[in-house]
């Protein structure tokens, strides 16, 4: 009979969940396409990087204490997971095993169903020690999503240790961590059935733990504090013997939390607790050293005989040093929370446009290999400087300066190199961030090379394609000899003859114009004398959102119609116009045509402004804003209208223009536009007034023309040269008797404009145009009529003619006898 458990297993599972956190983006995760060419919910979760929380439980009777703790402890784990700001756990998997039976995996997305299954577990037996542990782990890995967390609860070694290679292959394929909660070992840790647990834990960045009940409170508190964030991994070292060591750890500016975990292992001959000795401390970049005692008030730290763990929030960027001492073999794990992470993959050909998702998760043995790394959240000028592979002790097996690819600034490559044989190794990257702080990251699981027994084809699980555009389907093939490729669409051959390839290469199937009938599953079928392999992809077709084309603002003349166009080349669109957030109705004032055009029949000033055209198709909705301008016809008014100007002088014509928008004003002379650059007789001020120097050729008609988008208006002014007046008085003297009447004649011989005439008597103003009295009448054309002459009318009479060009005068004498 195996001894009852001394551990609270659920608490340990919670702690391990905190240590390993959530799904890492390290490595290449395989995703799957179902035969119908559609992604189901599980496949979609895998593509989104979500994970499974998996328990593998030994339901032998001796595990009663463990099961009781798991039943009570899982509630705390689930509550912590459910409170995550970003959900990483998609489903829960439970596998129960008991020699010789291993139950089918229970998979559910509901925590309460998982609890219910645990409550109804029946324990039985317990006389024999070895159990079917690896069979249970294998079933759990097959049922779990990539990047998951598997916790194994048992108090016995494995009976089916011959499955170790299958389990390790699944761990590499699924990039999954496995943690063992051991409450017994059948008394022989040197047995192969126990040693396989160490192999599995090491390959998966996991642990093999032996803990006591006193760990519960601090472990659960640590889980609640730290389970909500993704992990990035920095250091993995398995020390085979007790020793004192110092490890340098670069901390970059993107690392928010630094965590150190040191666990003690035991050799097969070490059974006494008095030999357990485990110490760890850390030194920051400024030389200050912290021991585990510095973190005793932190409820997330653990200080046990066999496990030491502490976390440092917001660690100072720079080089930290971790010092460890132990009298036995031990495992150091250093990880953190931060953005910088990476995926990796292997190829035997250096493709020009390599996609990290098309690289292999494991290298092929005896083949020249290229290692590709796609890094995330390293901003320029930060970069990866070195890519290497390291063993379990952290020693570099191969390393080379990283070379960035030309088609993707985040994708780096090293090689070619021959991958090591017969061992597992981790991929490690080193570089500097944008602030010139060094960083290091290590993959979350180890990988090993495997023999390329036949061709291996890989395609993206889904290939995005846009209707009516082109797309290329690519199939990467790794092969050691010649092979043939046949393409199929929904099991229908696309090629009449297979395509021949001599070595590893990329096969491409182009679709120049994607149609709806092109949707579905495409197969890349590879055949060779060494074997066959088929890869599949689903053409994930989508109709693009409508593209609104030929978009332009509209304008209309006040009180006239306005038309706004909204055109799209997408099939079967529907149109809705909005004004100030409200739909524009179709009615007597406005109407929307089936082609998307909106007409306003009689525009008003308030109709000016922004209008939104919304187009909806099966591909989505698009909006476009069009501005409607309401214009008013221009007016032009010129002043003065008709003028005479004096030669060799300046004059000005003013033009007042109105309209919406404000019209452009142009000047014309005799029907031709005035060229201000070539004719310096004309000048224009900022108010569009025309200043003219009156030479001999300036007479004629001047036009002020105002135009805007609504129309054109003009006004005119006639300009003539002024001529100085010349007059004549036919008689030099008039002799009158008392009471006579006489007309003093003043003849205007010439003068433009028509001169103004007035009379002076003896040098003083006497009469001008319009004067009328009983004695004197100023007659038309400047003649002066004197009635009833008397002595006072005697004297010199002068006729004066005057205009803008000058004046002239003539004098006659009136005598009274």
From TrEMBL:
Chief location bin: secreted
Source domain of life: Eukaryota
Signal peptide: 1-21
Domain Ig-like, chain residue ranges per copy: 455-540, 546-627, 634-720, 725-815
Protein's UniProt keywords contain Ubl conjugation: no
Chain coiled-coil ranges: none
GO biological process: axon guidance; dendrite self-avoidance; homophilic cell adhesion via plasma membrane adhesion molecules
Gene Ontology MF, one: cell-cell adhesion mediator activity
PROSITE patterns: IG_LIKE
CC per GO annotation: axon; extracellular region; plasma membrane
Subcellular location, record wording: Secreted
Transmembrane segments: none
Keywords, alphabetical: Disulfide bond, Glycoprotein, Immunoglobulin domain, Repeat, Secreted, Signal
Protein's UniProt name: VWA domain-containing protein
Species annotation: Panagrellus redivivus (Microworm)
């Amino acid at each position: 009979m195996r001894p009852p458990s001394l551990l609270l297993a659920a608490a340990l599972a919670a702690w391990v969940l905190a240590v390993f956190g959530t799904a890492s983006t390290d490595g290449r995760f395989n995703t799957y396409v179902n035969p119908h060419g559609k992604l189901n919910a599980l496949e979609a979760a895998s593509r989104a990087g979500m994970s499974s929380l998996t328990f593998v439980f030994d339901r032998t009777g001796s595990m009663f204490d463990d099961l009781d703790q798991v039943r009570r402890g899982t509630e705390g784990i689930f509550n912590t997971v459910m409170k995550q700001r970003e959900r990483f756990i998609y489903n829960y998997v439970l596998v129960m095993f008991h020699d010789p039976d291993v139950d089918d995996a229970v998979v559910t997305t509901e925590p309460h169903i998982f609890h219910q299954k645990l409550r109804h577990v029946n324990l039985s037996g317990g006389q024999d020690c070895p159990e079917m542990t690896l069979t249970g782990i294998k079933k759990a890995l097959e049922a779990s999503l990539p990047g998951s967390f598997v916790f194994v609860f048992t108090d016995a070694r494995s009976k089916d240790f011959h499955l170790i290679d299958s389990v390790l292959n699944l761990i590499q394929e699924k990039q999954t961590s496995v943690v063992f909660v051991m409450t017994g070992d059948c008394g022989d840790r040197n047995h192969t059935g126990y040693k396989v647990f160490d192999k599995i834990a090491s390959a998966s960045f996991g642990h093999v733990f032996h803990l006591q009940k006193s760990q519960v409170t601090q472990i659960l508190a640590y889980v609640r504090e730290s389970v909500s964030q993704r992990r990035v991994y920095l250091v993995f070292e398995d020390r085979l013997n007790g020793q004192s060591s110092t490890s340098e750890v670069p901390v970059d500016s993107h690392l928010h939390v630094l965590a150190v975990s040191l666990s003690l292992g035991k050799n097969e001959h070490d059974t006494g607790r008095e030999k357990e000795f485990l110490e760890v401390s850390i030194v920051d970049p400024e030389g200050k050293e912290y021991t585990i005692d510095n973190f005793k008030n932190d409820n997330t730290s653990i200080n046990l005989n066999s496990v030491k763990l502490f976390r440092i929030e917001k660690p100072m960027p720079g080089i930290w040093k971790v010092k460890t001492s132990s009298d036995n073999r031990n495992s150091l794990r250093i990880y953190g929370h931060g953005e910088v992470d990476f995926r990796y993959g292997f190829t035997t050909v250096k493709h020009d446009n390599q996609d990290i998702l098309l690289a292999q998760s494991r290298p092929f043995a005896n083949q020249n290999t290229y290692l590709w790394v796609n890094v995330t959240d390293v901003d320029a000028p930060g970069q990866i400087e070195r890519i290497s592979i390291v063993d379990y002790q952290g020693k570099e097996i191969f390393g080379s300066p990283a070379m960035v690819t030309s088609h993707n600034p985040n994708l780096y490559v090293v090689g070619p190199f021959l991958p090591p044989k017969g061992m597992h190794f981790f991929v490690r990257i080193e570089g500097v961030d944008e602030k010139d702080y060094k960083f290091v990251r290590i993959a979350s699981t180890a990988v090993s090379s495997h023999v390329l027994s036949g061709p291996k084809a890989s395609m993206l699980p889904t290939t995005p394609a846009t209707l009516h555009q082109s797309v290329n389907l690519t199939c990467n093939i790794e092969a050691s000899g010649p092979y043939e490729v046949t393409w199929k669409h929904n099991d229908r051959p696309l090629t009449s003859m297979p395509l021949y390839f001599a070595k590893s290469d990329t096969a491409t199937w182009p679709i120049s114009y994607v149609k709806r009938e092109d949707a579905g599953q495409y197969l890349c079928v590879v055949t060779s004398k060494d074997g066959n392999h088929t890869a599949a992809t689903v053409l994930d077709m989508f109709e693009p959102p409508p593209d609104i084309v030929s978009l332009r603002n509209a304008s209309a003349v006040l009180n006239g119609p306005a038309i706004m166009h909204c055109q799209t080349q997408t099939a079967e669109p529907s149109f809705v116009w909005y004004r100030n957030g409200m739909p524009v109705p179709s009615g007597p004032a406005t109407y929307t045509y089936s082609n998307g055009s909106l007409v306003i029949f009689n525009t008003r000033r308030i109709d000016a402004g922004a209008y939104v055209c919304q187009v909806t198709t099966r591909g989505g909705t698009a909006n476009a804003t069009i501005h409607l301008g309401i214009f008013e016809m221009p007016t032009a008014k010129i002043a003065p209208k008709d003028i005479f100007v004096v030669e060799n002088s300046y004059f000005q014509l003013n033009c007042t223009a109105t309209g919406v928008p404000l019209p452009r004003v142009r000047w014309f002379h005799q029907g031709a536009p005035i060229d201000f650059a070539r004719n310096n007789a004309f000048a224009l001020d900022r108010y569009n007034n025309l200043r003219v120097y009156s030479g001999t050729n300036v007479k004629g008609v001047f036009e002020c023309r105002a135009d805007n988008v609504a129309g054109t208006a003009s006004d005119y002014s006639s300009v003539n040269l002024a001529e100085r007046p010349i007059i004549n008085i036919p008689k030099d003297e008039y002799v009158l008797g008392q009471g006579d009447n006489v007309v003093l004649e003043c003849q205007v011989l010439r003068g433009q404009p028509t001169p103004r005439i007035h009379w002076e008597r003896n040098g003083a103003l006497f009469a001008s145009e319009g004067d009328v009295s009983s004695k004197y009448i100023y007659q038309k054309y400047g003649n002066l009529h004197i009635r009833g002459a008397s002595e006072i009318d005697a004297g010199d009479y002068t006729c004066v003619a005057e205009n803008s060009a000058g004046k002239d005068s003539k004098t006659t004498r009136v005598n009274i006898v």
